[in-house]
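Sorry, can you check?
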Amino acid sequence: MFQFTVLAIAAALVSIDQLTKWLAVLCLKNAGITELIPKVLGFAYVENEGAAFGILQGQRFLFLIITGVVMAAILALLLFGKFRKYRLFNISATLIVAGGLGNFIDRLIHGYVVDFIKVLFFEFPVFNVADCYVVIGSVLLLVFFFFIYDDKKPPVTSKTEEPHEDHSTDRTN
């Protein structure tokens, strides 16, 4: 049941990402910059053939291979690994997988990733919903490993278990 839930949530997130990219192509492709919140946030259609911040332009097959391997590893840890007992790990890994798959689909089908969210109050690369998933998931994963996960103690479960106490008295006279 856990695996089905994780895969269903990831699929829903990927669907949201793909829907927003489809809308960006439909509404923004030749529109220039559209301000949503004046001087703060807007939309601008960009076809990104590179990675974050546009680095490694034109390395489509490299990105497909790396993304495939990383997503498979994270998915395996998420579905079968020892960390699946931790809710924060599950959330962060699901976000990372969904974001990676959303951009993977773009690269596989189009050869580029559709970016459309633009920060207007300072210079920042245009990004998309999948990028948000990856960034938020990565930050949560860092929080998990640096501040929550301790391999020396078992995870806290949602069950409230009372420790077994021996109330018998051993009286030796």
DSSP finds four helices and three strands in the chain. The longest strand covers residues 41-48.
